[in-house]
Amino acid sequence: MGWIGDTVDSVKSIQIRQLLTQAVSLGMIVTSALIIWKALMCITGSESPVVVVLSGSMEPGFKRGDILFLHMSKDPIRTGEIVVFNVDGREIPIVHRVIKVHERQDTGEVDVLTKGDNNYGDDRLLYAQGQLWLQRHHIMGRAVGFLPYVGWVTIIMTEKPIIKYILIGALGLLVITSKD
Amino acid sequence: MHSFGYRANALLTFGLTILALMCAIASFSDNFNFPSPSAEIQIVRFNGFKKKPHGNDECAQVSLIMNITADLQSLFTWNTKQLFIFVAAEYETPQNSLNQVSLWDAIIPAKEHAKFWIQTKNKYRFVDQGSNLQGKDFNLTLHWHVMPKTGKMFADKLVMSGFRIPEEHR
């Protein structure tokens, strides 16, 4: 019976080592992704450096599923810039173009009005009740770069969670079964 | 080592890397385009003021007709999806050091349409935030934003100064 115990032991030890290395490499992947994201946040100065376009209000320039790279610099906001802003009481940030800017003489504060290129009217209907202008603190960043289609990955994953779980499961299975 | 999974993974990674590289190169190639756009805007006439109380902006809004002539063909490169152009009035008031009010905009989808002439009313309301605009000097600025197929977005403008809103009501 001794040899059975030996083999069981050896199998066990191998499994534990493999499991450990796999856990470590998985951890490396997760942490490096986090590092890249946080570094991007530092460089761009925007709390979400990359956003996915969710609506067709900027068509034909930006379609649903396109990706925008944001940058938030100290430069003043001017008309024509495409900004991403948050409205109080709305969770999802909106990507629209600035059509009016009024900059105060004394304080330098700005009042901004936006509009989607594909929308008929300006965004006052989207703002909070009674809000006529956006201020600086509503704006999360301005779009500087563009990448088509890539955002579909996240749209599909958020709208069809099953696919997300299947994907995660398949990847996990791959990690577990793979041997160096 | 040469399992299906590994090969699929390698192929996918390679493909994505090449795609990303091609996008980066396409975007970078825009830097070698040195455009020389030209444009001119004339105000044909002012159609007077309309009194229209609206929330806080309880002041007269200006209505005008303008002629826009532009040749923006040189802005198009192979990485250009479209051009977004707009005309903004820019002026100073005692309250605000800068006011930019977009009056008209358009999307130019292709190079063939980038040389144009148009006579148009102001598409958006020309109204200030508080003060009346009678007798105000202002600039008209033609802005263009180049929206790429992929990569970095470019923007620039041409300023035309010396416009004045007439004093009296009609």
UniProtKB/TrEMBL annotation, chain A:
Its main location: endoplasmic reticulum. Pfam families: Peptidase_S24. It catalyses: Cleavage of hydrophobic, N-terminal signal or leader sequences from secreted and periplasmic proteins. The keyword Hydrolase applies. GO terms for molecular function: serine-type endopeptidase activity; signal peptidase activity. GO terms for biological process: signal peptide processing. One of its GO terms (cellular component) is signal peptidase complex. Residues 36-114 form the Peptidase S24/S26A/S26B/S26C domain. The chain crosses the membrane at residues 20-40, 139-156, 162-178. It is a single-pass type II membrane protein. Its EC number is 3.4.21.89. It comes from the Eukaryota. InterPro entries: LexA/Signal_pep-like_sf, Peptidase_S24_S26A/B/C, Peptidase_S26, Peptidase_S26B. It is found in: Endoplasmic reticulum membrane. Keywords: Hydrolase, Membrane, Protease, Signal-anchor, Transmembrane, Transmembrane helix. The keyword tRNA processing does not apply. NCBIfam families: sigpep_I_arch (TIGR02228). Catalytic component of the signal peptidase complex (SPC) which catalyzes the cleavage of N-terminal signal sequences from nascent proteins as they are translocated into the lumen of the endoplasmic reticulum. Specifically cleaves N-terminal signal peptides that contain a hydrophobic alpha-helix (h-region) shorter than 18-20 amino acids. PANTHER family: SIGNAL PEPTIDASE COMPLEX CATALYTIC SUBUNIT SEC11. Belongs to the peptidase S26B family. This is Signal peptidase complex catalytic subunit SEC11. It comes from Salix dunnii.
UniProtKB/TrEMBL annotation, chain B:
Keywords: Endoplasmic reticulum, Membrane, Signal-anchor, Transmembrane, Transmembrane helix. This is Signal peptidase complex subunit 3. It is found in: Endoplasmic reticulum membrane. The keyword Amino-acid biosynthesis does not apply. The lineage of its organism: Eukaryota, Viridiplantae, Streptophyta, Embryophyta, Tracheophyta. Its main location: endoplasmic reticulum. Belongs to the SPCS3 family. Essential component of the signal peptidase complex (SPC) which catalyzes the cleavage of N-terminal signal sequences from nascent proteins as they are translocated into the lumen of the endoplasmic reticulum. Essential for the SPC catalytic activity, possibly by stabilizing and positioning the active center of the complex close to the lumenal surface. PANTHER family: MICROSOMAL SIGNAL PEPTIDASE 23 KD SUBUNIT SPC22/23, SIGNAL PEPTIDASE COMPLEX SUBUNIT 3B.
